[in-house]
Design goal:
Length: 374
C-alpha cells in the first residue's frame, strides 16, 4: 500500500446522557476521525482520546497535532507491505498511543478493503460470530437512578453490568445493587480512584461476588496492584497501566491481576492489541474489550477485535443508541435481544459511513498529503 493522503476530521456529537467516572463528567465527545486514502480506496479509524488528559495523558487537541505532524508524515509516500508494519514505523514516537493507534486502525481497515475481507478476518479474528456485550454505567445522581438504568440495560439483554465507583460511591452502593440484582454479573471500575490505604475498604467488596475490580490504584502502577491482589479474593482487572504486551508480561509475573482490559487506542492499535491478547492467552488470563465512548467507527473496530479467541468476557461494546441520537455509521451498531452483536461479512469495518452526518458533525478538517515531512 502507498498512502497518498490522510484526512483528519474532528467531530463533535452530544451524548444521549452524561457519563461520569471518578475523574470527570462528560456531556459531549470531540473525536478525531482518520481517513487514509490509497488508489481510490479509503480506510477509516478513530482516535479515542478524551477531551481532557484525565484518563491518560492524551486529549483531543494534542492527539490532532501528533497525528498530523508526526504520525501521518511517517506513513506517506512509503510502500507499506502490510498494516502490521505501521506500529514499527511510528513506535519511536514516545507515548501518544491513541493518536498512533487511530491512524494504524485506519490502515488495517484500508488493507481489509483492498483484500475484500471483513476487518475481523483481516486481523485474524472470527473465533465467534456474535460477541457478548455488557454495559458500562457511569456514576449517577442517586442509587435509585442507577438501579433504573441497570433495569433498562438488563431488559435490553446485556449480559453484565459494570459500575463506575469512587470514594463515597462504592461499598454501600454496590451492596444495594447486589441486593437488587443477586444473579447479575457485576463489575466495579475505579479508574484509579484508590490507594493502598484503602485496602480495608476494598476488601469489603469481596462480599459481593464481583467478576472483577478494574484499575483500583494508580493509572501507571503495577506493583501496588500486586500487593492489593494478594489481599483480595476478587480478581483485579488492569486497564490504564497496561499499554504494551510487555506491561502485561510484567503484571502477570507479579500476580498483579487476574484479568486484563484491552482498549485498542490505549495500546496503540491492532498490532499491539493482538500481541497483548496472545501474551494473556498463553497463561490463561482472560481479556475483554473496554470502551472509550467511541463513535461508530471505533465501536466497529472494537467488535472486530473482540472476535479474537481470548476475549472470553463480555466487553463494553454496546449499541450506538445508548450513546448517540445519530451515529456516523449506518446502520448504527445494534445488539440482539440476548445481548450480543452479530458480525457482518462486508469488507472493512462492516458498516457504511453516514457522510451527511459526518459533514454536519465536523468542526475541523485537515488533509496531510504525500509531500509532507516530519
Amino acid at each position: 500500500m502507498k498512502i497518498e493522503r490522510i484526512v483528519l476530521r474532528q467531530i463533535r456529537i452530544p451524548l444521549v446522557h452524561f457519563f461520569e467516572t471518578s475523574f470527570s463528567r462528560t456531556y459531549e465527545r470531540n473525536i478525531i476521525i482518520v481517513e487514509v486514502l490509497s488508489e481510490g480506496l479509503s480506510g477509516w479509524g478513530e482516535i479515542t482520546a478524551g477531551e481532557h488528559p484525565f484518563y491518560n495523558e492524551e486529549w483531543t487537541a494534542a492527539a490532532w497535532l501528533i497525528a498530523k505532524d508526526y504520525v501521518a508524515p511517517r506513513l506517506l509516500n512509503l510502500e507499506i507491505e502490510a498494516a502490521s508494519d505501521v506500529n514499527a514505523l511510528t513506535r519511536h514516537i514516545r507515548g501518544h498511543n491513541m493518536a498512533r493507534g487511530g491512524v494504524e486502525a485506519a490502515v488495517w481497515d484500508l488493507q481489509a478493503r483492498r483484500n475484500g475481507n471483513p476487518l475481523w478476518k483481516e486481523i485474524g479474528g472470527g473465533a465467534r460470530r456474535e460477541i457478548p456485550c455488557g454495559v458500562s454505567i457511569g456514576i449517577q445522581n442517586s442509587v435509585e437512578e442507577l438501579i433504573g438504568k441497570i433495569e433498562t440495560e438488563l431488559a435490553a439483554g446485556y449480559q453484565r453490568i459494570k459500575m463506575k465507583i469512587k470514594p463515597g460511591w462504592d461499598v454501600d452502593v454496590i451492596r444495594r445493587i447486589r441486593e437488587r440484582f443477586p444473579a447479575t454479573p457485576l463489575m466495579a471500575d475505579a479508574n484509579s480512584a484508590y490507594t493502598l490505604k484503602d485496602v480495608p475498604l476494598l476488601k469489603q467488596l469481596d462480599a459481593f461476588g464481583l467478576t472483577m475490580i478494574e484499575q483500583p490504584l494508580a493509572h501507571d502502577d503495577i506493583i501496588d496492584h500486586a500487593q492489593l491482589q494478594a489481599q483480595l479474593r476478587t480478581p483485579i482487572c488492569l486497564d490504564e497501566c497496561i499499554r504494551t504486551a510487555h506491561h502485561a508480561e510484567q503484571a502477570i509475573r507479579l500476580n498483579a491481576c487476574g484479568i486484563v482490559n484491552i482498549k485498542l487506542g490505549r495500546v496503540g492499535g491492532f498490532g499491539e492489541a493482538i500481541r497483548l491478547h496472545d501474551v494473556c492467552a498463553a497463561v490463561g488470563i482472560p481479556v475483554w474489550c473496554g470502551g472509550m465512548l467511541e463513535a461508530g467507527i471505533g465501536r466497529a473496530h472494537n467488535i472486530a477485535m473482540a472476535t479474537l479467541p481470548n476475549f472470553t468476557l463480555p466487553g463494553d461494546v454496546s449499541a450506538s443508541k445508548r450513546y448517540w441520537k445519530r451515529d456516523i455509521i449506518v446502520p448504527g451498531v445494534q445488539t440482539t435481544p440476548h445481548g450480543t452483536i452479530a458480525l457482518t461479512d462486508d469488507p472493512g469495518f462492516g458498516y457504511q459511513i453516514d457522510h451527511d452526518f459526518l459533514r454536519h458533525a465536523t468542526v475541523r478538517e485537515e488533509t496531510v498529503a504525500a509531500t509532507a515531512r516530519a
